[in-house]
Design goal:
The protein is an alpha/beta fold. Helix content is 51%, strand content 13%. It contains 13 helices and eight strands.
Amino acid sequence: MKIGFVGLGKMGGRMVERLTKGGHKIVAYDSVKEALKRAENKGAIPACSLPELVDKLDKPGAIWIMVPSGEPTEETITSLSSLLAGSDILIDGGNSFYKDSVRRAHELERKGISFLDVGTSGGVWGLKVGYCLMIGGQEAAFRKMEPVFQTLAPENGYAHVGKSGAGHFVKMVHNGIEYALLQGYAEGFEIVNAKKEFKLDLRKIAHLWNQGSVIRSWLLELAEEALRKDPDLASVRGYVEDSGEGRWTVAEAIGEDVPAPVITLSFLERLLSRQEESFSAKMIAALRNEFGGHGVKKK
């Protein structure tokens, strides 16, 4: 199948490589020339602009967008919508907010363009093991693009989960769960690391826990690998970013009156990690000193 692909970053470039290896013809575009050259070296047909990309596609055409969520995605879809025609298919595989995807689907539908929102999970490992694809949008468009999904995903690794917006909604909650899992592992390893009297080997414990224990997982395998490379994580700063989907999940839980304390606290811990020093912690220390004479550490 011949499709266009916009966005050749850490995930997009690897997705293009997996698709070309799977026998698909990919017309690729990225504003970063080095990324475009890498894709060309992997077998993609390069395009130097969005109009050129559209011109090189069959009619009707299909284009997969893999750019950062928010304004970059909005600008890309707006530009492409003026270049595409009826019966073309546009796919957003990034981490867009699901309500934006619902709006975009309606706007594109008025022009006769089909839109699929595809929550994509797999990170940099997707090239080797495949990507989990959570797909929302019209059933007919999904069926037409199914050969592409089959190539990108492992066995049973893709599904049409519902109407427009459903794919990105499911991916949003997926990431919220990811926050909670990461936090659980992080706190557990911190407790183990704090028990200095046993001189525990964190990498060895990560490997052990993956042998039949109830907390074994791929994340734990990655923990073992990270600890093998850097046993004390001395080269890693404890600053944790978020792509936005954790906070969207928390907001959705509140809006639906669903208690989600673990996911919520996991997200708040990420915010805490970005503070050089917490003013609230200083306030607590000062108040304890005032009411109980408890000592405070001076800067």
